[in-house]
Fold this sequence. Notes:
Blueprint: E1 3-10, H1 14-25, E2 30-34, H2 47-52, H3 54-72, H4 88-112, E3 116-119, E4 121-128, E5 131-137, E6 142-151, E7 155-157, E8 170-171, H5 173-176, E9 185-189, H6 193-204, E10 208-212, H7 224-237, E11 240-242, E12 246-253, E13 256-262, E14 268-273, E15 275-278, E16 282-284, E17 317-319, H8 330-344, E18 358-360, E19 365-370, H9 373-379, E20 383-389, H10 394-399, E21 405-411, E22 417-424, H11 427-439, H12 444-449, H13 458-468
Helix pairs in contact: 1-8, 3-4, 3-6
Amino acid sequence: MSKQFDVIVIGAGPGGYIAAIRAAQLGMSVACIDAWQNEKGGPAPGGTCTNVGCIPSKALLQSSEHFEQLNHHFADHGIETKGASVNVEKMIGRKNNVVKQNNDGILYLFKKNKISFFHGKGEFAGKADGGYAIKVTGPTSEDLVGKHIVVATGSAPRALPGLPFDEKTVLSNDGALAIGATPKKLGVIGAGVIGLEMGSVWRRLGAEVTVLEALPEFLMAADQQVAKEALKVFTKQGLNIQTGVKITETKAGAKGVNLTYTDAKGVEQKLAVDKLIVSIGRVPYTDGLKADTVGLNLDERGFVAVDDECKTNLPNVWAIGDVVRGPMLAHKAEEEGVAVAERIAGQHGHVNFATVPWVIYTSPEIAWVGKTEQQLKAEGREYKAGSFPFLANGRARALGDTTGFAKVIADAKTDEVLGVHIIGPMASELISEAVTIMEFRGAAEDIARICHAHPTLSEAVKEAALAVDKRTLNF
């Protein structure tokens, strides 16, 4: 006899487990299916984000940043050290422990909210009385029936054509987070979030890092004023970043990878590296879902096709997160998870894509929300912009990190904030103020008139808002 549920969520990544918890909080009987497993074969809910993405990368970034500070910046504070070294094995072990704590935390939340968790792969087995039949295969084998199904199966790394991942020399984000020793030479294909963060980790630990990007300009998704500053800083740090690159030949062996490519000037170049991280995007993961069994529509790129409310072409079947349109960001998936659970309950779930923030956790951090100057120019929209350097911020000086600036862009007539862009210390935390202001369609003057504690980095955002109207309190 199949087990019956009001809601079955397939996938326990940020979107899936949040959707399951919210649905349970709203009084529904909920099951969540997830196939991720730890090194012992046990369940490891949390998806890519928790297991091989957001969480472990931040753990390694923190560890490597400590090493960077010790070797290059502690002396400025009068702290003298000699002969410091890094134990990569122990660093990876700490990262693994951080991941496990998050896995265990999700399992605890499932238990607390009376969610039935099934460890295995979930697939559509057909329609059934009361909803849809879902089969669980793997460590757990079960037949379930759900009135509502939420597909939250996430995404997988995109491989370079002709160069499959072996996670030993040719690495996805998974392998990049598990390198056993610092490589002498590291190649990174793709100067996006994953490429820059992983390149930064291993550069700090002593690797010679070359980053190859196909796009003609660096960080084209970011505001170009921020992108230019970032390129200058990263180059100074030692990252060799090349844009406008076209890979023409790859040869991978046990000892490394040989690349042939043409640079931005069309000149052929060769690069030999010990390890190669390929971070050229991700693809929706629907393998094994058996969408065709029930006629679930996928679009031409393999994403589950949904409308603005995350409804699929099938009644009571929803899809969220990386497996649908929109940015592949954990917090976007979480917002969709909450919204879908509330819509199932008859409420009005809300997701505003215009206020989804982006963050790159390098040093300096880069964060933005809303429109860039180049987007507004392309739209022909009149705007005004103001920026303020962390060099003039007292807290940044005390921290010893004055790199970068905060920038506020507002409508020329209404003063509504259209975008905020930050490169500098704690940008990932500072951007939340901008998200809040924009969610309520606030003005640059609103930021300028809010009392900010002194000394704080957030004062740079206030000063940037003041600069929109050519005012300042510090100059």
